[in-house]
Write a sequence for this structure.
């Protein structure tokens, strides 16, 4: 069955050779990975999620996701596996492993973090069932043999009514971290990882009536402000928002993620933490209401239709790049948090968990994962300087948050091969 693309269009055309729009889960287990067990788990998981078993094809001038009957690849390697390429059997995702690590690599045009976590829960359940003697708990996990409702297949964004673009003045450009710290020549993509016990962070979250994503966005804002006290451009952090709630489509698999823009206004710099947290919580509340999310989706849909109206792939890719440049002028950084992983009994076998992605519309991205009683912050940068990470960790120290940090490593993610990039 061939499915015409719609919600997939923006993340597809925003991907490029130098910045593939992909993400990678990195999962360290408590024992060496059994490649045969992982291959069996991957096969079972993909049968449970047939809408992920696809390849990109062009049909009558329109791109579709067509059924891909080739087996999904499970490669014994620590190197990224190119997606939509021969190395991945032209799938939009791939599995790999080495030593005690499992890697799952996904094109953002296929799904977002919420959709990928559902797949990951099934994969880890199937793997743990094969690898360990104890059968893991499976509550809340979609299993092979479960019925697959239409709600998992259908794209709910198609039903969003078009609304007029809201009137309002132009948004002022936001503070750009690379420009502000003169890092133009520092173009080595790097990831820093910080781990915090869940109890440590949640204590502060409860004290300030906040949430993990919101409080991390606030600490990042404070860190940036401490380095640029005289900067007039606003510090503007995008906190990801799951659009499924507003769409009343909790089971949808498409990439359905928006953002609440949190602006650290000059007057706020002198407020105490609890008052700042209240202000940020209010911004999140207003922008995550159903009507706000649906208005944002209507704007995204207009942009999607504008891209589809262009005649060639190169025109569409150029237009998507222009849209990305516009966002880079507005955003300082992004913080992404899906919620607790909910891996069931398999979670007891996970020693380390990371989520990496290339910052697409900003220079720094924090991916927050909540697994095995720990929050892991993967701070993904389009540069290597630790200046902002050091400032963030100082904020943690000053607020009594104990943490463990790892040495930075190169941010290497798989290519996504697209026809217009060849």
């Amino acid at each position: 069955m061939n499915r015409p693309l719609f919600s997939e269009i923006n993340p597809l055309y925003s991907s490029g050779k130098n910045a593939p729009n992909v993400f990678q889960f990195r999962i360290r287990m408590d024992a060496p990975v059994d490649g045969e067990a992982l291959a069996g788990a991957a096969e079972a998981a993909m049968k449970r999620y047939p809408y992920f078993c696809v390849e990109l094809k062009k049909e009558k001038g329109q791109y579709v996701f067509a059924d891909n009957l080739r087996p999904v690849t499970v490669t014994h390697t620590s190197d990224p596996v190119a997606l939509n390429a021969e190395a991945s059997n032209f799938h939009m995702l791939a599995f790999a492993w080495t030593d005690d690590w499992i890697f799952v690599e996904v094109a953002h045009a296929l799904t977002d973090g919420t959709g990928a976590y559902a797949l990951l829960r099934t994969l880890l359940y199937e793997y743990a069932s094969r690898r360990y003697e104890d059968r893991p708990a499976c509550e809340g996990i979609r299993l092979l043999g479960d019925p697959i409702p239409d709600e998992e297949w259908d794209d709910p964004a198609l039903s969003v009514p078009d609304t007029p673009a809201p009137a309002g003045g132009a948004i002022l450009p936001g503070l750009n971290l690379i420009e502000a710290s003169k890092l133009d020549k520092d173009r080595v993509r790097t990831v820093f990882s910080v781990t915090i016990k869940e109890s440590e962070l949640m204590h502060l979250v409860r004290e300030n009536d906040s949430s993990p994503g919101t409080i991390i966005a606030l600490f990042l804002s404070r860190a940036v402000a401490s380095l640029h006290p005289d900067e007039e451009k606003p510090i503007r952090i995008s906190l990801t928002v799951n659009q499924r709630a507003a769409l009343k489509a909790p089971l949808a698999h498409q990439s359905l993620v928006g953002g609440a823009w949190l602006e650290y206004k000059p007057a706020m710099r002198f407020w105490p933490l609890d008052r700042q947290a209240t202000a940020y919580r209010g911004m999140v509340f207003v922008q995550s209401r159903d009507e706000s999310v649906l208005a944002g989706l209507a704007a995204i849909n207009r942009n999607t239709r504008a891209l589809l109206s262009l005649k060639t792939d190169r025109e569409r890719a150029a237009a998507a790049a222009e849209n990305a440049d516009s966002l880079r002028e507005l955003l300082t950084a992004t913080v992404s948090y899906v919620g607790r992983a909910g891996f069931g009994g398999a979670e007891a076998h996970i020693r380390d968990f990371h989520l990496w992605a290339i910052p697409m519309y900003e220079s720094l991205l924090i991916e927050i994962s909540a697994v095995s009683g720990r929050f892991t912050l993967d701070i993904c940068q389009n540069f290597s300087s630790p200046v902002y990470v050091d400032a963030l960790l100082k904020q943690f120290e000053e607020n009594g948050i104990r943490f463990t940090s790892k040495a930075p490593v190169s941010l290497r993610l798989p290519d996504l091969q697209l026809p217009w990039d060849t």
Remarks:
- Residues 180 and 228 are 8 Å apart (CA to CA).
- The radius of gyration is 21 Å.
